[in-house]
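Long-time lurker. I teach an intro course on protein structure, and each term I like to show students one example going from raw sequence to a predicted 3D structure in token notation. This year I'd like something fresh instead of my usual example. Would anyone be willing to generate the tokens for the chain below so I can use it in lecture? Attribution to the forum is fine with me.
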Amino acid sequence: MRRQKKSNKKVVWISLIVVLVLAIGGAATYYFMNSSAKNEKMANEAAENFTTNIKKQNFAKLSDDVTKESLKTSGFTAQEMEAKYKTVYTGIDARDIKVSDLKVEHDDAKNNYKLTYSLEMTTTLGEMAKQKYSATISSEDDNWKIEWQPNLIFPGMVKSDKVRLTTDEAKRGQIQDVNGKGLAINKNVSEVGIVPNDLGEGDAKAKNLEAISKKFDIPVADLEKKLSQSWVHPDTFVPIKVLTTGSPVQMTGVSYATIESRYYPLSQAAAHLIGYVGEVSAEDIEKNKLLNAGDIIGKAGLERYYDKALRGVNGGRILIVNDETKEETVLQQNEKKDGDTIKLTIDSQIQQNAFNALKGEVGSATVINPTNGNLAALVSSPSYDTNQMVAGISSADYKKYTDDKKLPFLARYATRYAPGSTFKTITAAVGLENGTTKPDKVREISGLQWQKDKSWGKYFVTRVHDVPKVNMVDALVNSDNIYFAQEGLAMGEAKFQDGLKKFDFGEEFDLPFNMEPAQISNDGIKSDILLADTAYGQGELLMSPIQQAVAYTPFANNGKMVYPKLNTAEEAKAAKEPMSAETANTVKVALVQAVSKPEGTAHKLQIAGHNIAAKTGTAELKQKQGESGLENGFLLAFDSDQPNYLMLAMIEDVNGRGGSGLVIDKMKPVIESFYK
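-- Reply from a regular --
Happy to contribute to a lecture. Here you go:
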């Protein structure tokens, strides 16, 4: 019995020991697992913080997540590490940094963690190939941190390495006219600058700045702002203006440098079309990550539309260089590609002549080849000086442009207007095509005003000449509103609109600038009055001069309407036939008589030895019938025998002397120049 008790006690002790061992083992396992999870979390946080700070370029915070021992071993202080990152990343203009492939894995053998990740970034040379990194995360002061080395700036780097950028700037391509003459070229010019040290001090400095301000038309406040920029030192050359004309003038404080600048030989004559270049803004860089501060890009016109092709691609290399071993490692390399040359259909001489003719007026001139659509001139007046824009226009001069009520920045050749009586050619063609209009059909019209019936109330269609019997030819020669109003009503809204749709109303042309589509009406022709008004070119009809010119090409091209073309390298859309050759020639014969007959509205356009076909137009701008108002004048003209040009010119009435007569007077010398 005693032996049995002894044995039971032994079993109890063994059981207690087993339970105690299991409890201790469980507690140890729990502690170990909990500690391991905590360590892993801290290691991941260190990795996330470190790579995020690189991504955001918060280099001052990097030392929070790297071990002090690793910095010491690498030979860096926290401040030196921060400065190294700043120097390298700023030097190559690193931005848009992305972190990918981030992994943190435990190394059981060494009881630490292995960190791997990749960085992608955009530099001065564009997008750099993905760079792969690896590092160790170890415990220090009860925290897990990155063991930092210089190869975490770029793979393979050591302390004595430097990162260098070499660039090979691409040359901007030219914009040329059809004959190869430059419309936008690169030219060596003098750049005016101030060296602060040379200005003197106190009153002398103020006096010198005042003299410079007066000479170069730059406010003193603007000069002082340029001189106070953060990068300016006492002996720094601070650019203030580019001289596109004239010779350098020696002045105290002023120095000169020769630079290559964009230059526009036609300047104002082609400003709206060609546009100009300028330095990139912060918004430009935000929109296009491949742009860098200081880059020159197209700001307006074709310079802007074709900017990517014109600008080309800068070449260069980003290297890791060791000054001791002279070893170089290429991080990024680009071959330079100069910008393309854009050759236009524009003829410089025609462009300049047309602009000279419009000088002092508010208007436009469009010249197109009616057989192939080549645009020979696109002129808008008034204009602005593109070379002044490139040279550095003062805020005061720019304000003069923006405050000008004549809107010098508006490209009038692409702006919609009521076309007036030039549009009667289209109404005649539509009527001939659908059988409503007959060339010899006579309409008997009494007086200078007419209305369909009393339902029109006080509204009348008016005309200038009291001709009792009028046929289609007479109506085009004398520009009879009443005749075409009656023809439009005779066709009816459906037939009339069906005919007009063949002229691409509502369609956009494939041109490198903005232009709203031509419209027949705001919301359909819903009244007889609107139908009548539309038939003679008023109502709610809106067409730009380019759209008018295109719509009138069939009369010079046997019924075929060509589409406008501006870039010689691009194919124009195939021509269409909105009318038969017979219809086109019938209208053309009448337009020749509008010039040849003494009573014709375009008779002053006669040129000996040439059969000019023309149609004038006057679009009235007034609030209601019966009151006086301004009149925009239009001129359609082409050679009926050799149709290698078609002109659509327009002059806005801004001072009460509008109408088509003024347009003929201004544009006849331009048309005469075609025959010299």
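Some talking points for your students: The first strand starts at residue 95 and ends at 107. Residues 348-674 form a domain with the Beta-lactamase fold (CATH 3.40.710.10).
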